[in-house]
């Protein structure tokens, strides 16, 4: 995939049949849950869900688009929990990356998944939200970084703030036992069988060609969009040199939160941390 992606196509936003007098269709649709299949630029079907905000007042201009980690999906309990916490601060779009859950295609472990995220962001904007915040975990954390670098301010798939949790800084890292197991699952035929039948994740057998833009190379291209990097000091997958490398690449436009006692990605992100991320997003997006 080239460094500049475009042409994302998604189904039109569902419209409610009735709405209060004076309320626009976008305002009405923001109050209604929705579930559909989107279509990414390369034709892959992406299972996606929209959850209205439960916050007091009217935070309807903000929507979070959540990019899950490897082997996650839209119906996973940890993804639903994250959506529930973010719904206190705005609306939420969750989706399953290609090869995960009910979505089509096969996982490319962070490469073409940027097209899936772009389709989800366009769909989120179709509900009339003025501000979009992308939040990614682990593999999804690398995808939100590349997405923000590749989709500029003049595209419908642009984002207004980026949060990357437990992301790698560079590709092919095998320095920890969990990452060696993950590489076995991705690169070996027997590993891909484990992924398919053990984790409901269909993994593409082809190697990257060309190699996608790395997270650390993507980060400088994100400015001036606000960027938050979150990483646990007990992350068993990616040690602290990864977030520090990303933070150095971000320079003054990025923030780094090193969380004491936190492990890896969604399962290690408690509700208090997610609430803090929500508050940061409301204050920084747009």
UniProtKB/TrEMBL annotation:
Residues 1-35 are annotated as: Disordered. It comes from the Bacteria. The keyword Hydrolase applies. Residues 64-272 form the AB hydrolase-1 domain. InterPro entries: AB_hydrolase_1, AB_hydrolase_fold. The keyword Lyase does not apply. One of its GO terms (molecular function) is hydrolase activity. Keywords: Hydrolase. Residues 20-30 have a biased composition (Basic and acidic residues). Coiled coil: none annotated. Pfam families: Abhydrolase_6. PANTHER family: ALPHA_BETA-HYDROLASES SUPERFAMILY PROTEIN, RE40534P-RELATED. This is Alpha/beta fold hydrolase. It comes from Streptomyces parvulus.
